[in-house]
Structures
1.
Amino acid sequence: MAEETMISKNFIEQEIDKDLREGVYDKVVTRFPPEPNGYLHIGHAKSILLNYGLAKEYGGTFHLRFDDTNPTKEKTEFVDSIKRDVAWLGVDFEEELYFASDYFDKMYEAAVTLIKKGKAYVCDLTPEEIREYRGTLTQPGKDSPYRNRTVEENLDLFERMKNGEFEDGSKVLRAKIDMSAGNINMRDPILYRIARMSHHNTGDNWCIYPMYDFAHPIEDAVEGISHSICTLEFEDHRPLYEWVVREVGFERPPRQIEFAKLYLTNVVTGKRYIKKLVEDGIVDGWDDPRLVSISALRRRGFTPESIKMFMELSGVSKAQSSSDYAMLEYCIREDLKLKRPRMMAVLDPIKLVIDNYPQGQTEQLSVANNMENPELGERMVPFSGELYINRDDFMIEPPKKYFRLFPGNEVRLMNAYFVTCTGYETDEDGNVTVVHADYDPETKSGSGFNARKVKGTIHWVNADTAVKAEVRLYENIVDEEKGVYNKEDGSLNINPDSLKVLTECYLEPALKDAKPYDSFQFVRQGFFCVDNKDSTSEHLVFNRIVSLKSSYKPNK
Ligand code: ATP
Ligand code: MG
């Protein structure tokens, strides 16, 4: 079965078409190379789906490669979470799973090759001196006094660096390119540094580690990647990427193509900021549903399909721009609309007593699970003379155009009968505690009754069979008006009301056995998903994925 193209024809596909036509490559091999130093977020999902989509589209191969060449920040915990997230997005990588640290030997050999060609040298300048000698955007750099060491001396020193004869930071291996190059990345960049750090994969085998700009092109080339697709900040590194694969002598070197990162309005994606939110206890871990890490989106109730749809709508481009969070919300609504049952749930309850309904009687009403999708079938919903309705579906003195319950007014109880409000009770503070009504037995839903019409329909839950639950409502973690970052000090502008917990919600009994990640539409309110961390069969917890109202209009 042909896989659907994940993201529609774009400039990257045009480049690939050209490369295939000209015979530069005979097969498309792409990769996603995360550094295992944090959780993946929605921006990474873009890169994953783009690379995987291209591999599928061209009948090629996709590699998941952990870029674990920097032992300081890497953790096995992140490797596991990244695998879980990539798999959840529907990407099949088990056969093509790689670790950059498996190539340390090859990288070392590549460095030796460069030294032998006179293209790399060991430099003893201090980090400060190296910075000084590098020059600036407007001033060329100066040659290092160690630049003209002989090949033999460099080979000897580099081997001794590897053998641990020198102190951390005392020497580096540098490429010998051009200290006056306009592109600062080409001014004899560092290829290897000395750092005595244990690596999660290679332990203490190495005390020298390659720099990203040297390691990355080699990783790609070793794996036979054809198109190394990365984000725009690497555009200025492309000449170095090309220099490395050419000088090391790879036969069919990969080609780097850059695209613009995905940015979302009013969300926090930077690892640094998320880490701070977690550490400051503002959010409940990396998977807090207000975040847009993939695990947070999953916990909130987003589906892989909705994320793919979002990536298709936002497209791939060379120009930096921001996508609207409302578009992501539109995608999850679209995805769940026909797939999920529509249930009745009362989030802010008051009692509705139907005084003329036979005392002690309960009847079962047959209700369509999703009116727009008959395939989802029907369920039975209990009804009696004591119900819960939402507090805001009743008003003592309604404004104009309020068609819900108020004294004397008749409304339809969704899937049940017409009721007319006959009165209400209040507590000593004047808060409404009970609403009274009479029902008309002739008006049962589905009975064909059409003698009169009512303007308002409200939903309800039968009181004595209701399931009590906690419902969490979310808003942006940052203040929408002020923007994500504080202009003065760069800190986050936190929205103090980003989480609202409703502890006394009543759901219809069919929701009693809902399991983590199950999601539903709660009619008139939104889509909700059972929380995977805190929900138990005794204490159900739902996250609101998205409300039903939309501020986003797709331009189809
Ligand atoms: P962050 O800066 O958010 O922590 P990162 O770039 O440091 O992310 P890596 O693990 O180095 O994270 O990235 C893996 C891949 O994901 C890289 O190829 C990177 O270009 C890509 N990527 C990261 N952020 C985005 C984004 N917002 N949109 C698209 N691709 C992204
Ligand atoms: Mg990074």
2.
Amino acid sequence: MSTPNSSARKSAGKRLEAPDILKRKGAEPLVSLTAYTAPMARLVDQVADIIIIGDSMGMVLYGLETTLAMPLFTMIGHAKAVVDASCRALCVFDMPFGSYEEGPEQAFRNAARVMKKTGVQAVKLEGGEQMAETAAHLVKHGIPVMGHIGLTPQAFHAMGGFKVQGKGKGRAQVLRDAKALDRAGVFSTVIEGVPEPLAREITEAVGNVTIGIGASAACDGQVLVTEDLLGLSPRTPKFVKQYADLNQAIEKALKCYAEDVKARRFPGLEHTYSDK
Ligand code: KIV
């Protein structure tokens, strides 16, 4: 059956895969963004090489304080919508807290379920050295893995909040984390909230593609939460550049609508059915 989406896919050509991303190491920086819904995925797909269906949706869409409570089945629904609405970017599913930490078998079981139900091409796991065995197991069984080190939001309570990582004594551990994931065979690593010299050293030391968020321009690519750069989030961290103020634009439009309804300016004749 030819759906609007499948014909868009045909004209867009082949979707990027993990090996295509890996080939871009050290070349033109990779563009990555988050998406959680079909309308945003359609827009993001026009510019992004990698779409991350992030558990940040817990905070951005569901108003939670941290990402910890996001259920796997809820994220699966969002990921299916994103994959179906995009045709060019590699789609990465961010495994939520509690869905992979028990060990390689739990991680494989849940990652395989995610891939079958959504069509994503890769999964992301938070954690470095302690997650390397699990990452290697997934890679060995055909699942491309993106790592996530430095500030790992699922470790919110262990870190004592969203805090910059890899300063002072913590520096050597973040470097060890990056190298362990590289040996495990990840195709990419998100480096979040670390100082520039460390991000640079990691990017030069590993063979996989580093994607920075609050980790300087020294990385092989960048990712931001799309709602943050659009001005739709209540709080924007220091590392976010805001490219639009959609909150203000939406507020203005909604006020105009409410005023029109109250003054009976809406609906007008052009929005009204006649019986002729
Ligand atoms: O949850 C998320 O959206 C993420 C990306 C920002 C990397 O982890």
